[in-house]
Design a protein that fits this description.
Its EC number is 1.1.1.27. By secondary structure, this protein is of the alpha/beta class. It is 41% helix and 18% strand. The chain has helices spanning 15-26, 40-54, 95-111, 125-136, 149-162, 197-203, 212-230, 235-249, 294-311, and strands at residues 7-11, 32-36, 62-65, 76-79, 117-120, 143-145, 171-172, 191-192, 195-196, 254-263, 269-280, 283-287. The protein has a six-stranded parallel beta sheet with strand order 3-2-1-4-5-6, with helices on both faces. The model has no long low-confidence stretch (mean pLDDT 95).
Length: 316
Amino acid sequence: MTMKLRKVAIVGTGLVGSSCAFSLINQCVCEEILMIDINEERAKGEAWDITHAVEYMPYKTKVYSAKYEECKDVDAIIITAGAPPKLGQTRLDTLGISAKICRSIVEPIMESGFNGFFILVSNPVDIIAYHVWKLSGLPKNKIIGTGTSVDSARLKTILSEKLEGIDTKSIQAFSMGEHGDSQMVPWSHISVAGEPFLKMIDKNDKLRNINLDEIVTKTAKVGWEIYERKGTTYYGIAAAAIGIIKSIFHDEKRIIPVSAMLNGEYGEENIYTGVPCIIGKNGVEKVIEIEMTEDELVRFKRSNSVLREYMSTIGY
């Protein structure tokens, strides 16, 4: 019997890329991990270091440095390489450089014969996901940006604190739109144990004065608060990226808010943006189109207009 080994390549072996690799071996997601970086010695060092951790993991994973031409039979590629924002910049401000870096990565990968899934982490992730879709020629379901997946985890953490420590897994909540400052939260669809959060506010004196706009702002800004304290974020986004890959490999049909292509959903066309999606063996299998209030839809479209403005700066 011939067994197909699952392979994941990681392009960009800095703190985010190496955290993705460590999450992969921790959770026994695949049998092989290819570490790729313009700095080949860095890729080798990370591969060796992670290999030495495999001894103490439940299953064996082969980890090694590689080149783009070795990606032909890889199942999924995580791209983390990009331009980090400088002081005073937003994620969107890094688009020009990140788009050029992305082209230098995607073109040789496609020349290798790759036909798997791209998982995009590089910022601004929504526009980079669209850029990779254009560059690769692959179907839209195979190009997935991490989008608002980590923002949604941050939102649930904030709500958990407001709700006296209720487990985040018992809270149904997600952010939508840009993975950035303009993201929004569809409060009409946020619930705890099936009870609408807005109804909980009305019934609970401790929650009655809660400021929903402040929560959205805090959700969008907490990544920057981490950035200011430790220089970057990597554990949360790595976990989100691996969660997407697990849902593909195990056909979990899990609903994850990712950056996906919209073709008519929410009245939007030809844009990658953060929306809840069913993620399974075919990648993005369905965009979940929730029925938002008029105000929520306005906020969502406003966020998308921000993305479109920046998309135009690289010719889209």
